[in-house]
Amino acid sequence: MDKTVTPRPSRLQRLRESDLWYSFCAHPSAIFAAVLLGLVALTALLAPLITPQNPYDLAALELWNSEIPPLWEDGGQWPYLLGTDTQGRDILSAVLYGSRISLIIGFASVILALVVGLALGLIAGYFGGWVDNVIMRVGDVLLSMPFILIAILITAIASASLPTGLKDVLAAPILILAIAVPSWVQYARTVRASAMVEAKKEYVQAAKLIRVKAWRVMLHHILPNCLTPIMVAATLNFGLAILSEATLSFLGVGMPPDQPSLGTLIRIGNQYLFSGLWWIVVFPSVQLCLIVLSVNMIGDWLRDALNPKLR
């Protein structure tokens, strides 16, 4: 008798048949936010192909093309669709290139904080005792200080200790570190709470009895049961990380003017807001709002979809 073996469905097929995908398709605001964020990310990635100039190339800037208004205003010129700033930098090019920097810094800082927080939270929850006390007290110290103050302190120390030639080169890694250092505590506390519950269950006790290595128990047994709240927190913190980068750059301790992120562009444009050059600050601000809004909408949907109590 022939037995037909049913092929195992692929990951993509399992995803399309999952409750998470059904919830996404039934959530119009989540679809809108995903499309908006994807469009922003795609245009930022393809910025060298769709923008009229490289805003980071100072040799390409021409002062006689400075302070040109948007194309629909009197005096607007093609190809400067959104106008130019006081240095002749195309605003559309600067916004797209700046969005790429802001997205990269926000994503990298979230990943760094997530990795550190997961590792420390698992260690604290699994081993407990003095290890848990040391990790959590360090986290409490960080939580007792304002987020922006810690970030400014880290950037100031790094800038003061680095040679002049390396400050601008390492501006992005310094920002990533400054945002990630105070952010890992939230992930660690969330994972610690879940790990303490999972560590007392029978399957973890059985793994300990047969002398399974601690790192295997933490990674293969405890961690998968802690990922749901972490995914939601990481998504929401992505938007906060982008806002933090913009805040630091706006305060002058972020990206340099020759490599402007959205926060740097807003800081530069704010100086000319009351002189009639409104487009220099408005368009970077709108782009920043769209990014953070789309990320927060996706985070809200993900929280509702992964929490059975809210269904």
TrEMBL record:
<dbReference type="InterPro" id="IPR035906">
    <property type="entry name" value="MetI-like_sf"/>
</dbReference>
<protein>
    <submittedName>
        <fullName>ABC transporter permease</fullName>
    </submittedName>
</protein>
<feature type="transmembrane region" description="Helical">
    <location>
        <begin position="101"/>
        <end position="129"/>
    </location>
</feature>
<feature type="domain" description="ABC transmembrane type-1">
    <location>
        <begin position="99"/>
        <end position="299"/>
    </location>
</feature>
<keyword id="KW-0812">Transmembrane</keyword>
<feature type="transmembrane region" description="Helical">
    <location>
        <begin position="272"/>
        <end position="293"/>
    </location>
</feature>
<feature type="transmembrane region" description="Helical">
    <location>
        <begin position="169"/>
        <end position="187"/>
    </location>
</feature>
<dbReference type="InterPro" id="IPR000515">
    <property type="entry name" value="MetI-like"/>
</dbReference>
<comment type="similarity">
    <text>Belongs to the binding-protein-dependent transport system permease family.</text>
</comment>
<keyword id="KW-1003">Cell membrane</keyword>
<feature type="transmembrane region" description="Helical">
    <location>
        <begin position="226"/>
        <end position="252"/>
    </location>
</feature>
<dbReference type="GO" id="GO:0055085">
    <property type="term" value="P:transmembrane transport"/>
</dbReference>
<dbReference type="InterPro" id="IPR025966">
    <property type="entry name" value="OppC_N"/>
</dbReference>
<keyword id="KW-1133">Transmembrane helix</keyword>
<dbReference type="GO" id="GO:0005886">
    <property type="term" value="C:plasma membrane"/>
</dbReference>
<dbReference type="Pfam" id="PF12911">
    <property type="entry name" value="OppC_N"/>
</dbReference>
<feature type="transmembrane region" description="Helical">
    <location>
        <begin position="20"/>
        <end position="47"/>
    </location>
</feature>
<feature type="transmembrane region" description="Helical">
    <location>
        <begin position="141"/>
        <end position="163"/>
    </location>
</feature>
<dbReference type="InterPro" id="IPR050366">
    <property type="entry name" value="BP-dependent_transpt_permease"/>
</dbReference>
<keyword id="KW-0472">Membrane</keyword>
<dbReference type="Pfam" id="PF00528">
    <property type="entry name" value="BPD_transp_1"/>
</dbReference>
<keyword id="KW-0813">Transport</keyword>
